[in-house]
Amino acid sequence: MALDLVLFAQSSGNVYAQSLINGLTFGALLALIALGYTMVYGIVELINFAHGDLFMLGTFFALTVLSTLGLTGAGAAGASSGQLIVAFALMILLTPVFCAALNWSVDRVVYKPLRNAPKLAPLVSAIGVSFCFMNVGMFWNAMIPENGKTVPSAADRNFPSLLSNDNLLPDNALKFTVKDAVVIGVTIPIMVALTLFVKYTRLGKAMRATAQNPTAAQLMGIHVDRVIGATFAIGGALAGFGSVVFSLTVNTIGFQIGYQNGLYAFTAAVLGGIGNIPGAVLGAVIIGLIRSFGSVMIGEKWTSALVFAILIAILVFRPTGLLGSRVREKV
User: 223 by DSSP, 3-state: which?
Assistant: First the structure.
């Protein structure tokens, strides 16, 4: 009886430890998307609902890179280590550039003419851009053949499994795979670099000044439109990094993944305090842990309800989020 209790305690401990690893990994991935939401909102107070679908287009761009290199379908199984390294390098370099350029272009074409319009106008425009991106994703999906065959536009795609799923821990009771290590290894340096960039560089200081008071920043010689454009580009690049990491670790993409992951990322930004960069990271980690532990304790089908229930409870008592600060409405 005593031995059974010990084994049960060890088993429960392993389950919760594994949930902690899974939650932190998912939270780190979610943070890359959430940072794009919070940076744009912090500068122009726009909830860019198209950001999640920009992330989705990044996954299709990464798949297109692999297709061009012949590493989709049967070609991925016989790829050499050198080919895999080249493919990973091209995806991690080109996909953020693609997403940054697309996000910057949308700002120039759609959002910039609405800078001085009522706040509802750019918000509705962002929803429209989101639907446009989703349809582009459907067409793009059908344009990428798989084993020489056309795939239905609305079907989910199997992203080539280029990373090993081997366990890096000596104890097989817990699993921390190469894929988990890639998520952490890519996400943490990016977030540290972003923090240092915003805090110490000239453009980062201009972003903070524009976020506090764009009119005063312009009077001080800051080119506000360029700062806003740079913010959209950086936010798009973060979504690009997230799309590559997501594709390599989850290995399933589709035109609807931007909606769900974008919703979680937006929730993370709100939970941490939208407009606050550390808050977005904190909110993403919290949501990752809630989803992971919730799937163990109450079941996977209830995790979304649990996430939003906790979000509502927190915002009732702290409407500005965990790290957000109450500021006066700009007039």
Answer: coil
Q: Is residue 277 included in any domain, yes or no?
A: no
Structural domain harbouring 229 = 25-256
Domain count, the chain: 1
Q: Which DSSP string corresponds to 175-215? A: --BHHHHHHHHHHHHHHHHHHHHHHHSHHHHHHHHHHH-HH
pLDDT higher than 90, residue 179 = no
Output the average pLDDT for the chain: 84
| Non-local CB neighbours of 145 within 8 Å, separated by 6+ positions | 67, 151
Instruction: Return the closest-CA partner of residue 293 out of 6, 27, 8, 2.
Output: 27
Query: Is 51 inside any structural domain?
Result: yes
Q: Which helix (H) or strand (E) holds 29?
A: helix 2-44
Residue 46: count other Cβ atoms within 10 Å of its Cβ: 21
Instruction: Name, in order, each residue with C-beta under 8 angstroms of 41's C-beta and a sequence gap of 6 or more.
Output: 47, 48, 269, 274, 275
pTM above 0.90, yes or no: no
Give the per-residue pLDDT at 3.
Answer: 33
Per-residue tokens: 249: 């670790």
What CA–CA distance (Å, rounded) separates 307 from 173?
A: 27
Q: Which residues contact 55 (CB under 8 A, 6 or more apart)?
A: 33, 99, 239, 242, 243, 246, 257, 258, 261, 262, 265
Q: Three-state DSSP class for 15?
A: helix
Q: Is residue 265 part of a domain?
A: no
Confidence of residue 152 (pLDDT cuts 50, 70, 90): confident
53 inside domain: yes
